[in-house]
Amino acid sequence: MLLRRISKHVTDQNWFAVFIDFLIVVVGVFIGIQVANWNEERIERSLEREYLEQLHDDFVKSIKGQRRDVNFLNRQLSDYEIILKSLDACHVNTKDKKAFQRGINTIGYINPPRIFRRTVDEMSAAGRTNIIQNQSLKDQLSDVIALVEWRGNSFTESVARINEHNRQTVEKEMRYDLSQKYTDTFIGEFVGVDFDIQTLCSIPQISSSISSVSYSTLERRRAYEPILKQYEGILDTIEEELYTRWNVKLK
User: Fold this and answer.
1) Domain segments of the chain: what residues?
2) I need a labelling partner for 154 at 20 to 30 A (CA). Which of 91, 120, 161, 196 fits?
3) pTM of the entire structure?
4) How many CB atoms lie within 10 A of CB 10?
5) Helical H segments across the chain, by residue range
6) What is the enclosing helix (H) or strand (E) of 72?
7) Are 238 and 56 in contact (CB under 8 A)?
8) How far does CA 235 lie from the centroid of its chain?
9) pLDDT, tens digit, for every residue of 114-130?
10) Closest Cα partner for 197 from 90, 53, 114?
11) What is the number of H-type helices and E-type strands within the chain?
12) Cα 138 from Cα 156, distance rounded (Å)
């Protein structure tokens, strides 16, 4: 219809009408492009919000897991302190027996930094890493992923090798007793060990191994606590972004 009308106006040499027809076409195309762009932007922002909500859920879980691991490290340090005091005294107090047994059982236990990265990996696989508009949040995510990967690979592996050597040193002087069973908040059920405290305190390598494991545990706690703070910072940024742009409260 429009093409036929333009053709007629050209034939009639009605250039003003031709100009009006051309203008109508241009405006129509422009509006169509703008509507398409607006619709695409709306879909992108809806997807961004969905990703942010998923990231929020991931980091809530990451914080919970990392706090648990830090608390476990604190408990390990307490148990190792009891073991070292018992070795120095060549005596295990009755009230310290479970902690002593638990400390022996957890020598060498290492949890890499805890992070739930489902959404980060999903965004990366879909080529959507730039969908998040908040540059500060993108920088925070990039920094913490790099830190966790470093702590979870080279750092954890080197500590594991050292701790395994120390564990073997201690286990040479002990025997696991399946008839002794304990329950624990962090590791569930574990079995006790038979040992002679007089023998243990007479072997300097035992104290040295426990001391070494205790130090590496302290170092891991120092390494993991900043990661936990970064998780909490990311969560705050996500919550502020969702509230500011979409009036969504997730606290």
Assistant:
1) 2-246
2) 120
3) 0.81
4) 13
5) 2-11, 15-89, 97-105, 118-125, 135-150, 156-171, 197-201, 204-246
6) helix 15-89
7) yes
8) 11
9) 899 999 999 999 888 88
10) 90
11) 8, 2
12) 26
